[in-house]
Design brief:
The complex is a heterodimer of chains A (about 130) and B (about 110). Chain A has about 130 residues and is mainly β. Chain A contains no helices and 11 strands. In chain B, the strands form 2 sheets. Chain B has a 6-stranded mixed β-sheet, with no helix packed on it. In chain B, strands 1-3-7 form a 3-stranded antiparallel β-sheet, with no helix packed on it. The chains are: A mainly beta (about 130), B mainly beta (about 110).
């Protein structure tokens, strides 16, 4: 069964850098992306960005250049670094596999979705 | 940026009832890039539907999705106790891949 394991910093002070790592077992990121999503306490889900094994990235503009995603293909590890954290960055952080799958109904479009999720890391900035 | 607005914010229902949740996009999106997730406290989100109407593996047929353009719906028939959670739609048609604000389904 495909599973994502994630780990990283859980307690930081303001201005420090958050670091999280995600790896997959029982499956592969080949052809897909590693996405990152967070949820502040009492709020909804927020998409942060994604990266594939080739290092192609896409970031949410809301993070204003503070976010860096990277990949270590030799260890099959995907990492997130969020610089200059504040209390507003407190929350649960999830990695997820963002699938790219051909749509049977169209040669022009694909299915994109987050099918497997890590268990989440609770991050506190205080 | 494509904004997704879900309605209502909260619903109070009883097991056995049926419900339809709405997800409206600020601009037209291709249905194959619309997904629905279920989120329970302390757990990771769980994929329910992709491509607006395709059930993910292991999702019972009580969950049905439909829609196109800017209007999408998730219908849950015969609510079970484990269905009470927060539901999110997400579009991956245009970056940033935004989520709706969520609809909380609570037990009456």
């Amino acid at each position: 069964q495909v599973a994502l394991q994630q780990w990283g910093t859980e307690l930081l002070k303001p201005s420090e850098t958050l670091s999280l790592t995600c790896t997959i077992s029982g499956g592969s990121f080949s052809g897909h992306y590693c996405g990152w999503v967070r949820q502040p306490p009492g709020k909804g889900l927020e998409w942060l960005g994604e990266i594939n094994r080739s290092g192609n990235t896409d970031y949410s503009p809301s993070l204003k250049g503070r976010l860096t995603l990277s990949v270590d293909t030799s260890n099959n590890e995907f990492s997130l670094r969020l610089a200059s954290v504040t209390a507003a960055d407190t929350g649960s952080y999830f990695c997820a596999r963002r699938v790219r799958e051909s749509s049977p109904s169209s040669i022009y479009y694909y299915y994109y979705y987050l099918d497997v999720w890590g268990r989440g890391t609770t991050v506190t900035v205080s | 940026e494509t904004f997704l607005t879900q309605s209502p914010d909260t619903l109070s229902l009883s097991p056995g009832e049926s419900v339809t949740l709405s997800c409206r996009a600020s601009q037209s999106i291709v249905a194959s890039y619309l997904a629905w997730y279920q989120k329970k406290p302390g757990q990771a989100p769980r994929l329910l539907l992709f491509g607006a109407s395709n059930r993910a593996a292991g999702i019972p047929d009580r969950f049905r999705g439909s829609g196109s353009g800017t209007d999408f719906t998730l219908t849950i028939s015969r609510l079970e106790p484990e269905d009470f959670a927060v539901y999110y739609c997400q579009q991956c048609y245009s970056s940033p891949y935004t989520f709706g604000q969520g609809t909380k389904l609570e037990m009456k």
